[in-house]
Automatic annotation (TrEMBL):
Gene3D superfamilies: Tetratricopeptide repeat domain (1.25.40.10). Keywords: Repeat. PPR repeats lie at residues 9-43. The keyword Isomerase does not apply. The keyword Repeat applies. It comes from the Eukaryota. InterPro entries: PPR_rpt (IPR002885), TPR-like_helical_dom_sf (IPR011990). It comes from Arabis nemorensis. It holds the Pfam family PPR_2. This is Pentacotripeptide-repeat region of PRORP domain-containing protein.
Length: 69
């Protein structure tokens, strides 16, 4: 997308992060969160809500919440 299409925006990153989290790919999710932050974007309410839910049921650890702040 960065090479051939429009640049990703906040919505693009959030959609990709949510998809990776749903698939259980924590590594890709963390990399996307870091990339998103380095580009000046932040997680939206739905992404943060999903991270909270996954923290609550034990699928993620607190480091994901720290990354979104």
């Amino acid at each position: 997308m960065k090479e051939d299409g429009p640049l990703p925006d906040n919505g693009t990153y959030n959609a990709l992060i949510k998809a990776c989290l749903r698939d259980g790919d924590k590594t890709a999710s963390a990399e996307l969160i870091e990339e998103m932050k380095s580009c000046g974007f932040c997680g939206d309410a739905s992404t943060i809500s999903m991270v909270f839910d996954m923290l609550h049921d034990g699928r993620l650890n607190k480091s994901f919440l720290d990354m979104l702040s």
